Amino acid sequence: MEKTPFKFGRSSFAMVIPKAWAEKNGLQRKNLLYVNEDDSGNLVVSTKQGGKAEFEEVVTKETYTFIWRLIGFHYMYGTTRLRIYSKDGFSAGQVRAIEENVHRYYMGFEITSQSINDFVIEDMSNIKDTSIDKITVKIAFLISEMFKELLSEAYERSGKRDLLHRGAKIGGVDVAHAEAGSMKTGASYSSIDGIEELVNRYYLLGIRYLNMLKPGNIYLYLRALELMEDAADILVRFSKIDFGQARGVLESDQRLFETSAAAMKGDRKKIDEVFKMTEAISKEMRRVKVQEHIFEMLYDLTWSIAVIAEAGLIREKVAQQRENAPRP
Q1: What CATH number does the domain located at 53-128 have?
Q2: Which of 3, 14, 204, 270 has a CA 20 to 30 Å removed from the CA of 85?
Q3: Residues 272 and 183 sit within 8 Å (Cβ to Cβ)
């Protein structure tokens, strides 16, 4: 069916909802309608909030790891209330470990009810208070901090890459304590580990946001989130080894990441610059004499960072399509 929008207020447009659709969906006066944008930029109107769901899972003598991953699946899926029941009950250790990791990784999730045989987890946040762009910007900032820590003189002087006495700090703030709650630092724990855990938290929040609100260009954002998480994982691997002569390439990758993050926003000049920088870094890698596994890590890191810029190409294309679309 076709509908002609009409002017509403100073700068808005409105349309009449078809009577047949309203009756089919039981729409009444003052009921809420949810309006989202799909991948093609079309508006989707629904009487149900996207991603809002309640689930119950029945488990037997499952391991803590299985239950934790089950909770993670529901978090990313967009579940707002989850009850997990076991006729065998949960051990005190399982409950403590689950509660710790809920607070550690799943922003907004809280255990609101608990007994010997079950516990209930609910979303106590409003996902609409944030945006996927804010989440990706936050992850990009954290990865920039990982590069700074990895290449800093203090980190280099530590001998080992685990910074035995520094803990997880950014700008004097104990990130592990302030952001990850019960996260513990130890002899094998570094500042980069702490930042990477924050990247993981925001990555999971980003996936949850996409599944619940389904914004336009959802696959663009999904790809960007995955690539940035991959880059963070590789930086953690570099923090555990003596990368020696690879330092120069890592410094080039640091500059590439800053440019690629800007390109992701649709900056055409930055997109072109990323392609040129990637070609230069590829030549630089072939000149550096490093072990094969380090070369592979450098290649994977450079590739992940460079492909992030492709999100900018897609965004630019979508913007052009909208600009050239016929006006009503």
Answers
A1: 3.30.110.10
A2: 204
A3: no
